[in-house]
Write a structure and sequence with these properties.
Layout (H helix, E strand, L loop, with lengths): L1 H15 L3 E7 L2 H17 L2 E7 L4 H5 L6 E5 L6 H4 L5 E5 L12 E3 L14 H10 L8 H10 L11 H12 L3 E7 L9 H7 L12 H10 L5 E2 L2 E2 L7 H17 L4 H4 L3 E7 L11 H13 L3 H9 L4 H27 L2 E2 L4 E4 L9 H7 L12 E7 L2 E7 L2 H5 L4 H11 L3 E4 L3 E6 L4 H16 L1
Parallel strand pairs: 1-2, 1-3, 3-4, 4-5, 11-12
Antiparallel strand pairs: 6-9, 7-8, 10-11, 12-13, 13-15, 14-15
Helix pairs in contact: 1-5, 2-5, 2-6, 2-12, 2-13, 5-6, 6-7, 6-12, 8-9, 12-13, 12-14, 13-14, 14-15, 17-18
Bound molecules: manganese (II) ion (MN).
């Protein structure tokens, strides 16, 4: 830890010497939060900046950066260390992805270099935060570090933040920027009517509730929970702690009575994070909703709006971002309905649906992940969603924790299967993506099925 902080100081000192920098970051919630966080710190130092958000750091993207004297890479960069020295700029990298290659000149901050795991212990935003914090008096930026970690789902595996993330959280709690508590792990605590929150909660499948609006309303009636107060839908934050406990224990009972394993049922509850500086009842007050809002801007090509929100715009940019969030949710519901109507095709070791042009390639993976509750989906098999994209067919795969424990590695399987048909893929063990040429989907799926079978046998 001491060495990680020492490196953060070195990077911060290099940054402090610049008059103007180009901030290059990744187009997802963690990437946007990282960029916003760094820029807010730069504002205080009176260092000028431009921001560029990119999908990936390939040679073409790097070529377009050649005019800058100093570049800060956040939430990316560690995968392209070989290319840094030829940029002719001072390169400062705050990333948490697996480093590859070597650079003689770059200032490189990455948890992997110091024995931490970038998938669980520290996010891109957390890494950027350590750097900005080394400049002193930037502790108020810790809320964005938590938003980024939650955006990368770093709190999910163990039901709370751990590693360096946890130290940042403790600091944020001490400074009263974030409050953490154990609560129902469901999206929309600040903004959604309770019955919608429960119906669409997708981290674990609750029989008769998940994806079932009538069943959800029936349960809430049985528990004597008022849905409305003064003519307005009550949200999770409007409930008393007694009401919350009553609902949570009813959901748990329901799962247990259907034979769902207790360890799994426990995942209904986990750490949730409230941003104390944000107004109550807004999507920014909850770290998970904030990160989804950022993702919504990124997935529809409005990443600049997401950065503006991180920089503090609560007027025009927030309004636009919230509209995008609503549209994003609506598209997800439409996507799930598509899968409900068409169903999935089952092979021996996977199930898939092909949405063609009916679901955007940028959200087909989220839809696949949310489909667990759809009738006819086997919760034990990985699910692959396919959708047409500009450069081929996008395939997104989602596995389960149980299969990963049995050695499922979707990143490897998707990459190998895609390469065999002239495409490319990668990602994580539990969630991965690939792009395959049009017309080669069948072949790809058959080979993927075989590879997954070998992994989990
Ligand atoms: Mn990240």
């Amino acid at each position: 830890m001491e060495r990680l902080l020492e490196r953060a100081r070195e990077c911060a000192e290099a940054l402090q010497k610049q008059d103007e920098v180009l901030v290059v970051s990744h187009v997802d919630a963690d990437g946007l939060a990282s960029a916003g966080l760094v820029c807010r710190g730069l504002d205080k130092l009176n260092i000028g900046y431009r921001v560029r958000i990119v999908k990936q750091l390939d040679v073409a993207a790097l070529g377009a950066l050649s005019d800058a004297d100093a570049i800060v890479f956040t939430d990316l960069g560690s995968g392209h260390l070989d290319l840094m020295d030829s940029l002719g700029a001072t390169c400062i990298i705050a990333d948490h992805h697996q480093p590859t290659g070597r650079s003689k000149t770059a200032f490189h901050l990455n948890p992997h270099l110091f024995g931490f795991n970038g998938a669980t212990d520290l996010s891109g935003s957390g890494t950027a935060y350590l750097m900005m914090r080394a400049l002193g008096s930037n502790e108020e930026l810790s809320d964005l570090a938590i938003v980024g970690a939650v955006g990368d789902l770093q709190h999910i595996r163990e039901g709370g933040l751990r590693g360096v993330n946890k130290l940042i959280l403790q600091e944020a709690e001490k400074n009263r920027t974030v409050a953490a508590e154990r609560d129902l792990q469901a999206f929309g605590r600040q903004t959604r009517p309770i019955h919608k929150l429960l119906e669409y909660a997708s981290n674990i499948y609750v029989p008769g509730v998940t994806g079932n609006s009538e069943g959800t309303l029936r349960l809430l009636r049985q528990l004597d929970i008022q849905l409305k107060k003064d003519g307005r839908w009550r949200r999770w934050i409007d409930l008393s702690s007694g009401e919350r406990r009553k609902i949570i224990s009813a959901l748990m009972q329901r799962c247990l009575s259907y034979g769902i394993a207790p360890q799994k049922v426990q995942r209904l509850v986990g750490e949730v994070y409230t941003l104390l500086g944000e107004a109550e009842g807004t999507a920014l007050r909850d770290a998970s909703e904030f990160s989804t809002l950022l993702n919504a801007t990124a997935r529809y090509g409005f990443e600049d709006i997401g950065v503006e929100v991180c920089l503090g715009d609560r007027a025009e940019s927030y309004t636009k971002a919230y509209e995008l969030l609503l549209m994003h949710r609506e598209n997800l519901v439409k996507g799930i309905n598509f899968v409900k109507q068409t169903g999935v095709t089952r092979l021996s070791n996977l199930q898939y649906f092909h949405a063609g042009d009916q679901i955007r390639d940028t959200i087909v993976g989220i839809v696949a992940g949310m489909c667990k509750s759809v009738a006819g989906i086997d919760g034990r098999l990985p699910i692959i969603g396919l959708a047409n994209a500009e450069d081929g067919v996008k395939a997104s795969a989602r596995g389960t924790q149980e299969l990963v424990e049995r050695r499922l590695n979707l990143a490897k399987a998707m990459s190998e299967a895609a390469i065999s048909v002239g495409g490319a893929g990668g990602g994580h063990d539990i969630a991965a993506g690939a792009t395959v040429p049009y017309g080669r989907e069948e072949e790809f799926l058959v080979f993927l099925n075989k590879l997954i079978g070998e992994q989990v046998s």
